[in-house]
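Case 516 in the screening queue. Each case pairs one protein sequence with one candidate compound; here the compound is 5'-O-[(L-methionyl)-sulphamoyl]adenosine. For every case the pipeline is the same: read the inputs, emit a complex structure as tokens, and attach any notable structural observations.

Predict complex for case 516.
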Amino acid sequence: MGEPFYITTAISYPNGRPHIGHAYEAIAADAIARFQRQAGRDVRFQTGTDEHGLKMVQTARDKGVEVRALADEMSGYFKSMCDALSISYDRFIRTTDADHHRASQALWRAMAASDDLYLDRYEGWYSVRDEAFYDEKELVEGQGGEKLSPQGTPVTWTAEETWFFRLSKYEQPLLDFYAANPDFIRPESRRNEILRFVEGGLSDLSVSRTSFDWGVPVPDSPGHVMYVWVDALTNYLTGAGYRDGEMPHWPADLHLIGKDIVRFHAVYWPAFLMSAGVALPKTVFGHGFLLHRGEKMSKSLGNVVDPLDLANAFGVDGLRYFLLREVSFGQDGSYAADAIVTRVNAELANAFGNLAQRTLSFIAKNLGGALPDAGRAEVADGQLIEEVVVACAGFKAAFGDLMLSQGIEAWMRGVFACNQYIDAQAPWALRKTDAERMHAVLGTLVRAIRMLAITILPVVPAGAGRVLDLLGVEDRSHAAIDDDGWYARQAAAGFVLGTPTPAFPRLEMPAEAEPA
Ligand code: MSP
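Case 516 output:
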């Protein structure tokens, strides 16, 4: 087993069904998890649902259902979404799971043991939508003069007896930690935001609630449940086996989250962990928001799209490819049905899919599916392989550094090189005039296609997997990309290609209406 790599997504509130923003985060995390597995890391990948808190209580009340029933039903939709989108999680955690309650209480006790929790009265603003407390000075004014959170959500005045966490005590330790670990908060812009926030001074944080009971009970404090973010953040530790013995996957390598919740992950979470004497995660990456044609998604605008409708319309691979390719990871991005079709057709279906399909069906038809002989090599063959090796290395370097779209762009350069090579070498014409040369050209293309398919596997697992199945490639690790002996072994073993079917079908441009 390789070195551990622990990656997590945020856990979503199951107060409604998942939308494309949730799908985006899951897909990005999944591509990274698959990439690290290919690289030989011992990956643990966790996602799930965040089921406590006032937002869940209020939604259930509005719908006239029990909160547990709401959580069960909606959490099921999130899990089904993950399964439908080929999200390769190791655990789908629910914060209502029994081991999660145990871990949250253990973390609480550890913070109490450091004398970081005290009972007092909280009076201030709370946003149920964000499940967040805000200082008066952070609030903004709405159009009707009402007070809103900095995220533009309604706030209500709250006054109750609660437990406080001594967040102020961790102001300097946090600043020291950020300085010593420049990669803790990424990308850079989010890091700067957090530095400014912490430098502005930290007040102690209210960490329990008494006005409702849907949450993890505070140990030895009847009537108090933990503030939902305390137990939500602890999910990452629960999944690593906190207080159940060894934690080979802790500290987490990467908490992948949206830009709206960086403060919870980069300020509160490390402070809780410092207090409890637990090692801190290595990186918190705040990705951007997905917008629909540049607009925020909202129920009132009627532009909230079920990710499964998109996957049905454009294919799981198509959706995954589009989202990871189109959006520069870390920044906001926009999606629209016509943009998905254009991108998928140009790059997946035409550039790569067609390359594989043309080459493999030519071999199936003209060589009876047997891999071409060495033939008569020319300089151009070696040059192409070199270009593809560089493209795949570019993908690896960028993906390893979370620059997902740049990685795919590097990979595309390898695909374009193959297409230029095919046009220049015209193997179809060589069939009649120079069979020996045709063999060399086809053999070069098979090698190039194999390397490109292995490389893009984390992004489009189904289609790339189909190409590799056709080629009989069993070792799909990154190490296999540079394995020169593969072709010879495969040919010597008398490998025969089946009848290829397109791995990346062309999409139809939608009529006016987009999938609802
Ligand atoms: N429950 C909290 C997270 C707790 S993590 C310990 C939460 N849930 S959420 O359901 O509101 O959001 C889940 C994730 O989806 C967050 O990372 C959030 O940033 C992300 N997204 C929500 N809307 C999004 C878009 N429109 N685009 C991209 N990601 C978005 O916050």
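Case 516 observations:
- Residues 10-13, 21-22, 24-25, 50, 232-233, 235, 257-258, 260-261, 289-290, 297 surround 5'-O-[(L-methionyl)-sulphamoyl]adenosine (CB under 6 Å).
- Residues 4-288 form a domain with the Rossmann fold fold (CATH 3.40.50.620).
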